[in-house]
Amino acid sequence: MSSLFPALESPSGLIALRFGDRSLTYAEFAAATGALAARLPRGGRVAVWATPALETAVAVVAALRAGAAAVPLNPKSGEKELGHILSDSAPSVVLAAPGDELPYPVRDLERIDVDVDVSGTGGGPSPAPSPGDEDPALIVYTSGTTGPPKGAVLPRRAIATTLDALADAWQWTGDDVLVHGLPLFHVHGLVLGILGPLRRGGSVRHLGRFSTEGVARELNEGATMMFGVPTMYHRIAQALATEPELAKALGRARLLVSGSAALPVHDHERIAAATGRRVIERYGMTETLMNTSVRADGEPRAGTVGVPLPGVELRLVEEDGSPITSYDSETVGEIQVRGPNLFTGYLNRPDATEAAFTADGWFRTGDMAVRDADGYVRIVGRKATDLIKSGGYKIGAGEIENALLEHAGVREAAVTGEPDEDLGERIVAWVVPADPQSPPSADELADHVASRLAPHKRPRVVHYLSVLPRNDMGKIMKRALHRA
């Protein structure tokens, strides 16, 4: 197949990546990745200690240039999880920044320190044979909510097609400069946030650690795009009232993109009112990379994840698997997708791979959604945790959460279901009040939701918390709520 990174074939002196005060031009990046690739085994797997640093980007691209599959390791993972990932993926070496202290069992692997200070403009090795479209590029482990994490094998074809589809949807070119502060051990921060700019021949400025000050600085200094998760945009929305320079900086951005979880409508509206820019959302998974997005030239409807990307087939199905043929913005179904953006399977788990696909090749996402007549998709939650069957209705937790967040007395909200003898399931709200000393009452919140949505969607039980449990991506861990 053609190169994943054409800009590395004849590298220039343009800045490719910047992390804080450290940066590499395309010429320097080509030299560093080429020198490291020459030290790696052709094919096979290499682990990458995926800190938010230049070394991680060099390590992953070097592995891809050597035809190997990179296995990003989350530095915050515990020993048990790391042990499972290493046992399952069996990498031959681990790549890490010099000076990084690796925990057991990672330190039992042969280690290669990543050197980013390589002079020259060399393009690195020419792997023989050249990697094919279906050859593994990344093995990314999914969060194991119901068991040990599974390794999703992402082929080179999936990365190329997803990034090119996003380029089409977002009018993403080599002139764009991306700013973000996302972790680099998952597809959002690594594939979209690092490999995306490199495939376009553009530039990325990584904040190391997200801050509203960092976002404002980079957008004021020429960044054109920002990627973030809802937690980041929530902090931005809260800061806008006291940071006028932040509002001006966001107003200069060409594109503000949110992903990894639903962005509450309330935050959408606050950001749009203060900046004149609407955040657009996209929808993807580890196994599928990106499936849908609001287009740069499309209508940025708050609460939707846009339309299917070029090359992606998407359908909604009933519980019995039959496709929903008429879209009315109300009928809830499970999203199934098919296309070149999909993974090839779960490593060493043929059973799980088979269960994830229908007989005719559709991937069962487990995400529930409604679809407008013009194709816009609105996610209402996960099938396992966010679909509530109450009084004969199928209700998505997401729309109730959005309604709760519109109440002035609610800072954060999550919604789950619990067994009910009469209703089947009753709706339960978990609320972090804006004023812990004077939280809104359960009746007040129920009436608020009923007036905005429908009476059958009101919460029957309300729990008050000081904080909602979230993972590294800012997603609420709903299974932990019932233990709170």
From TrEMBL:
Record InterPro entries:
AMP-bd_C (IPR025110), AMP-bd_C_sf (IPR045851), AMP-binding_CS (IPR020845), AMP-dep_synth/lig_dom (IPR000873), ANL_N_sf (IPR042099)
Q: Record's CDD domains?
A: MCS (cd05941)
AMP-dependent synthetase/ligase domain location, by residue? 13-347
State the residue spans of region: Disordered: 117-136
Listed PANTHER family: ACYL-COA SYNTHETASE, ACYL-COA SYNTHETASE FAMILY MEMBER 3
Protein name as it appears in the record: AMP-binding protein
Family to which the UniProt record says this protein belongs = Belongs to the ATP-dependent AMP-binding enzyme family.
SUPFAM superfamilies xref list: Acetyl-CoA synthetase-like (SSF56801)
Organism field: Streptomyces coacervatus
TM ranges are none
Name all AMP-binding enzyme C-terminal domain ranges. 399-475
